[in-house]
Structure formats: C-alpha cells, structure tokens
Specification:
Number of domains: 3
Low-confidence stretches: 159-169
Radius of gyration: 47 Å
Largest sheet: 5 strands, mixed
Distance between the termini: 48 Å
Strand content: 15-25%
Structural class: alpha+beta
Order of helices and strands: HHHHEEHHEEHHHEHEEHEEHHEE
Number of strands: 11
Mean pLDDT: 87
Shape: rod-shaped
Helix content: 55-70%
Strand order of the largest sheet: 6-8-9-11-10
Number of helices: 13
Bound molecules: adenosine-5'-triphosphate, magnesium ion
C-alpha cells in the first residue's frame, strides 16, 4: 500500500515537473520567435522603404500632401486671426482631426508596403497605425496645433533612425517617421504596422518542437500508466495468492486435525478392544487421507495446467444423457432441499467431450449454485443448440455477483470477499477450472448475474 502510494506520488510529481519544464521552454521559444519576427519585419520594412524611395516616383503620401496644402492655406490664415483662447483651442482640435483623417484615409503607403511584402513572398496581412507627432501652422510666427508627449521626449538625433529596442519587442513594428511641410504648415507622424497572422506564423515555426514535446509527454504518461497498472496487477495477484494460501491452509488443516484426533483415539485403552470402533476410526482416517490427497493433487494440477494445455481424452457422447448422469449423481450427494430442474432441447446431439473434465466443470457450477445461496437452492439447467454450438445453461436463485466481481471470478484464486472469507469454504479455483475446461474444448463460459437475484452461467461448446 505504502509502496504503491509512493510510486503514484513520485510519478505524478515527475510528470508535473516534466510538463512545467516543457511549458517553460516553449514559452521561451515563443518569446524568441516573437522577437525574431518583429526584428525580421523591421528590417524588411526598412528594405521596403528604401525600395519605394528608389524605384517609385512617390512616397505614398502625394494625395495627402495636396489635400493638406489646400486645406492649410485657409486654416492657417483663420487660426492666426483668432484672438479668443477657447475658440483657438477648438480650432486646433478641428485641424488635428482633419490631418489625422486625411493621413489615415488618403495615403497609398500601406498598399505599396503590402505589394512589396507580397513581392518578396512575405506575410502581407497587416494593420497600420499612424501616430501623429507634431502639427504646426506657420505664418510670421508658429502656432503649435498639436505635439505628442513622445515626440517632445525624443532627442532630435533619434528622429531619423528611431528603431528603439522597446519598439521592436512590442507587438507593433515601427516602420518609419514621415514629415511634410510647405509655407503654411509642418506635419510629422510615425507609421507602425502589426500582423494579424503573427501568432499563426510563429505557431507554424514552432510546430515541430510543440509536437515533439507533446509526444514526449504522452510517451512518459503512457509509460507511467503501464508501469502503475502492472504494479497494481501484481499487487492484486499477490493478494489473491495470500488469500489462497490462507484458504488452503484452512482446508488442509481440517482433514489433518481429524486424522490426528483419530490417531489419538486409537491409542486409547477402551477403544483398542472395540473392533467396530477401530474399523470406524480407520475408515475415517482413510476418508480424510483421500480428501487430503485430493487437495494436494489439486494444487499440483494447477501448477501443471499453467505450463501445459490439458490432455483431453475425448469421446463422442450424447450430451443430454451425460448431463442426466452428472445431475443425478450430484443430486444424490445433496439432500432433498436442493431442487434441480432439467430441460434439454438437444435432439440427442453428440459432442466430442472429455467426460471426466466435463463432469468436473458441471459439478463446479452446481456446487457453486448450492454454496452461494441464502435460501433453499433452486437450480434450473437448460440445454439447447444451434447449427454449430451446444449451450448448457445453469441458473440459480442465489446471492448473485456484482458487475465488478464478474470481471474476476474466472481468475485463479479469486473469491468474492464477503467479509468473513471462511464462512463458505472454497479455494477460488472452481470457476477457473470451468473456464479452462470450456476453452480447452474450444468453447467458452459466460456469466449473467444480478446481486440478490441469482446467477446464470452459460457454457458454449462447438459440435
Ligand atoms: P472452489 O470452487 O475452488 O472451492 P470458490 O467456490 O470460492 O472455491 P469459484 O467457484 O471459482 O471459487 O468461485 C469464485 C467466486 O465466485 C466465489 O468465491 C463466489 O463468491 C462467486 N460465485 C461463484 N459462483 C457463484 C454463484 N452461483 N452465485 C454467487 N456467487 C458465485
Ligand atoms: Mg466453487
């Protein structure tokens, strides 16, 4: 029990550690791939930018330039004429809104960038974000319409080649900053992109590792589960063996103590002259010795059966006749309080059977039907057939067997634990024999039972 729990706990701990380590490594790999992705596309967009500059007659913001030029001439004049501070602020807000709208809606840069990525066989599904940094209206003096905090904090030298590491590691990728101006205005903004399919791309890149790590976890889990199950099975078998040895000892002790007592009796003075008594005691000793011998043979037989198949001595016999004989001799062994009803529908069918083993098989079923009963036993025996098989069915009104126990009752040494194991004597071998004998005849045995209702054992044998 203790050993089993230790194994279970250790197993679970090591599996948890394994999974955590894998998760830790995968997260590291993911982060690395994420950074590589950002770096790659930062470099690619610089390439794209150079390409666009060199080979196109536009930077993608021509329309924006025209619209803002037209707009700012009038806007500039009006702004400078305003005296009221409140009105001035409202006006600035309008201008910012217009600039933002135009630069977002009227630019071709995103299309150019996308075409470049496509041309190079790169991922080209991205969202662009334009961050306005600075808008100024210029007359004789300059009115700052808008200036972002980030722009103020940046050093002038940063502005040309600002690829800050913090900008790379974020999910957005910085492409470039742009500036445009004429006599009326000055306008600066940043252009960022982020990829909606980024996770998918990274997933694809890490797929091999993910699969391998998943596989290793599964393999370890399977290994652990098989080992644990084997351990449990071993434990179950060893428990069964212990039970068997206890039962066997008990079984052996009974005849042995009878013989011992009988021996002592024979030593007694008054018995020695009573011939009838001596004969009776000698018979008792003989009977018990035979019983003891049978028990020992049984044990020897089991170990032999383990190693070899049965040596069957088959004869072609009429099954219903044989059944009648077996049942009659079984009935004579028990009193009148056992009711056995037989019904055969076999058309005098003959089968190749080893009569001795077959008899043992039926006797085991019958003795169980009597043994595991809490009222006067009523046993119903049926025989019927189809084209290829003979069926022998033994039903009783006994205590029945639960579904869980049904799985094991044909196992060697298995007995249903009903608290006091010695209340009904047995070694847990009867049904094991039944199964082995049925199978060695090329057939099988099945159980159908409900606790409290009774049990039905069906033996199927081929013709
Ligand atoms: P043995 O037959 O070797 O003397 P046993 O009767 O205990 O010992 P099996 O005949 O193999 O062993 O039966 C295994 C267990 O199945 C029994 O201990 C009993 O609990 C249960 N069992 C078998 N037949 C019946 C039945 N007809 N009704 C209820 N329980 C049964
Ligand atoms: Mg039995």
């Amino acid at each position: 029990m203790k050993k089993r729990n230790t194994v279970l706990v250790l197993g679970i701990i090591s599996i948890v550690i394994l999974i955590s380590v894998q998760v830790f490594i995968i997260r590291g790999i993911w982060k690395q791939k994420d950074e590589m992705f950002a770096l790659r596309y930062t470099m690619r967009s610089q390439e794209a930018l150079n390409f666009i500059r060199r080979s196109m007659s536009t930077d993608g913001f021509d329309t924006v330039r025209i619209l803002l030029g037209n707009y700012s001439e009038k806007a500039n004049r009006e702004l400078h004429a305003i005296k009221d501070g409140k009105e001035l602020n409202a006006r600035k807000k309008d201008i910012l809104a217009y600039f933002t709208k135009v630069v977002n809606q009227e630019q071709d840069f995103s299309d150019l960038l996308s075409s470049y990525f496509k041309m190079r066989g790169l991922e080209n599904k991205f969202n662009s974000t334009i961050v306005v940094n600075d808008i100024e209206m210029i007359n004789n003096d300059t009115i700052v319409v808008y200036r972002s905090d980030g722009f103020l904090n940046r050093r002038p030298t940063d502005r040309g080649r600002r690829i800050l590491s913090s900008e790379i590691s974020g999910s957005r990728i910085f492409v470039n900053w742009f500036g445009m101006e004429d006599n009326n205005y000055r306008f600066r903004f940043d252009y960022w992109i982020d990829f909606s399919d980024k996770q998918k791309v990274i997933l694809k890149e890490s797929a091999a590792y993910l699969a391998m790590s998943g596989l290793s976890i599964i393999v370890v889990l399977i290994l652990f589960m098989t080992t644990y199950r084997n351990l449990m099975e071993e434990k179950r078998l060893s428990d069964l063996k212990t039970d068997f040895i206890n039962n066997m000892t008990h079984e052996l002790k009974t005849p042995l103590s009878t013989i011992t007592v009988a021996g002592k009796t024979l030593e007694m003075e008054q018995i020695r002259h009573n011939e009838a008594k001596i004969l009776e005691t000698a018979k008792l000793i003989g009977k018990q010795s035979i019983h003891l011998n049978q028990l020992i043979n049984l044990i020897l037989e089991i170990s032999m059966w383990e190693r070899t198949q049965f040596q069957l001595d088959k004869k072609n016999v009429k099954v219903d006749e044989l059944m009648n004989e077996i049942v009659e001799s079984f009935r004579s062994g028990y009193g009148n309080n056992v009711s056995i009803i037989q019904k055969y529908d076999l058309d005098g069918a003959k089968a190749d059977l080893d009569v001795v083993y077959f008899t043992t098989m039926i006797n085991n079923l019958l003795s169980n039907a009597v043994k595991y009963s809490d009222k006067d036993p009523e046993i119903y025996i049926e025989g019927f057939r189809d084209e290829e098989h003979i069926y022998i069915r033994v039903s009783d009104n006994g205590i029945g067997i639960s579904k869980v126990d049904q799985k094991h009752i044909f196992d060697k040494f298995y007995r249903v634990s009903t608290g006091n194991i010695h209340k009904i004597k047995g070694l847990g071998l009867g049904l094991y024999y039944v199964k082995r004998i049925a199978e060695s005849h090329g057939g099988e045995v099945n159980i159908d039972s409900k606790p409290g209702k009774g049990s039905i054992f069906t033996i199927t044998l081929p013709f």
